[in-house]
Design goal:
The protein is 71% helix and 3% strand. With 199 residues, it is mostly helical. The chain is globular. The termini are far apart.
Length: 199
């Protein structure tokens, strides 16, 4: 079966509308979860708030297990899902830059839009920085970024293929590791709170 639009079950003209509605829902969920505050995201790096890590781990686990079972019962064909090809060095450099941006600015692109939409000045400044960054990247791409972007192309790779595992085995191990991480976040939060209380 799915993806529904790719198979023609839903008219492709509905794609922007679905994207808009899903974006609204996602933004609403982020705002209700408190992610319009820059302190929420930065809390992961400083150890005082681990909710961001738990939320995104839960999202990854839900999507992974859901796709695995949907594929098993024939509700979705995993071969029809587009996966971005991997370019190793551009992923490493890009990941480091966006991580630095999150630590310095306190937002990721999604949470900055949420903050800006409810009138927060720091969110608006971050969104402005995103537009400036995109403009700078586009203008300097041919002579500054193109060689890095195309370096070490690895095609469409999956972690479980690289590890020589079956998808189900990998998802099971990933779930176990995620549960351990959940426990560690609770431990770190308690240690941080106790340290602040004593001080």
């Amino acid at each position: 079966m799915g993806p529904l639009i790719t198979q023609g079950i839903i008219n492709p003209e509905w794609n922007p509308i679905f994207a808009f509605l899903i974006g609204l829902g996602f933004g609403y969920a982020l705002e209700q979860g408190g992610f319009s505050s820059s302190r929420k995201l930065v809390g992961v790096f400083y150890g005082y708030d681990m909710i961001t890590l738990r939320v995104f781990l839960t999202a990854v686990l839900t999507a992974s297990i859901g796709l695995l079972y949907f594929n098993y019962v024939g509700w979705i064909d995993l071969s029809m899902i587009y996966i971005n090809p991997t370019f190793l060095w551009s992923a490493i450099v890009g990941g480091a830059l966006i991580g630095l941006g999150i630590i310095v600015g306190g937002f990721c692109p999604g949470t900055s839009m949420v903050a800006a939409s409810i009138g927060k000045i720091d969110g608006m400044a971050f969104v402005g920085g995103i537009f400036l960054g995109v403009f700078f990247y586009a203008e300097t791409y041919p002579w500054l970024w193109e060689s890095l972007h195309n370096a070490t192309p690895m095609g469409k790779i999956m972690i479980y293929d690289s590890l020589g595992m079956e998808p189900g085995t990998f998802i099971f191990l990933f779930t176990v590791v995620s549960l351990i991480i959940f426990w560690l976040t609770i431990f770190i939060k308690r240690k941080y709170s106790n340290r602040n209380l004593k001080w």
